[in-house]
Write a structure and sequence with these properties.
The protein is mainly alpha-helical. The chain has helices at about 5-20, 40-55, 65-80, 115, 120-135, 140-150, 155-160, 165-175, 190-205, 210-225, 230-235, 240-255, 270-280, 295-300, 305-310; strands at about 25, 35, 90-95, 100-105, 110. Bound molecules: zinc ion (ZN).
Length: about 325
Amino acid sequence: MKLLKWSARLSLVVLFVLLPLVGCSTNEATGRSQFLPLSWQEEVQIGAEAAPQFIEQSGGELPDQGIVQYVRDMGARLAAQSEMPDIAWEFYVLDSQVINAFALPGGKVFISRGLMAKMDNEAQLAGVIGHEIGHVTARHGNERMGKAMITQGLILAAGIGGAVSDNEYMQVLGVGTAVGGQLFLLKYSRGNELEADALGVRYMAKVGYNPIGQIQVMEILREASGGGAPPEWLSTHPASDTRISNLEAIITQDYPRYNEDGFYNMGFDSFKQNILTPLNKLPPAKHGASAMLSPAEFEKIVGIPWEHAVGQKCTCHP
Ligand SMILES: [Zn+2]
């Protein structure tokens, strides 16, 4: 790490004393108090800067306006039920075989054709998109970046006078750090995943989709990871039995009518007609399944201690 000027050191002292006071807020989606080092505008800016690189390196956008529009419409319906209905949400379908979905801070949500091809109903798609919307509304990227910055000492300079550039923020987040022409996202914690799962279920059920779709996705991913390398989505979204049992508990308690015929929508026919049939007519994905390094390989090459950035206590709750 670069040596800091004395003035920056002084700032640090001020920051560490004041940060717990100024950086904490209660999240509307989760009801949880969290420490957020970045403003909403900074989240939006980081997402906007990272998105074009991600899209380009994931095969670009899917060359089928019908599918793209269908996913955008579903994303818009889900986002309208979230705690942030009015932000500039954007939904992208990537022409990638990699089984993946992710969100960038500020409201940009991505899903690969490789993941959609594994699904067979709308409730599953709503589950994945709802989960990613949940990462945005819970502001997990911002929160994790704060933890990573504390780990790396960058927070020292970050709060004062914009001494840390956006590029450095993005390196901390993992985005903007290109390794072999690839970009990576900071891994969420298990706690983040459980929160995003719960929020995803909340949003999809409000739109009328059967929350059971969320569990079906976990099973699809588990099956896809059997034998070969785990899908990219599992690398950025740690899966576990905990997540499935968490979902089962939420659904049986809060959505008991999930197994009542016709109460919720599954959308098998619509998904087949709007997604699977046109998807099968497209040429192969531009971005193949074996094109990406795993986060573990990335960590080896770059040496950024991701694990150190995960699981630190929020300074709101010393
Ligand atoms: Zn996730």
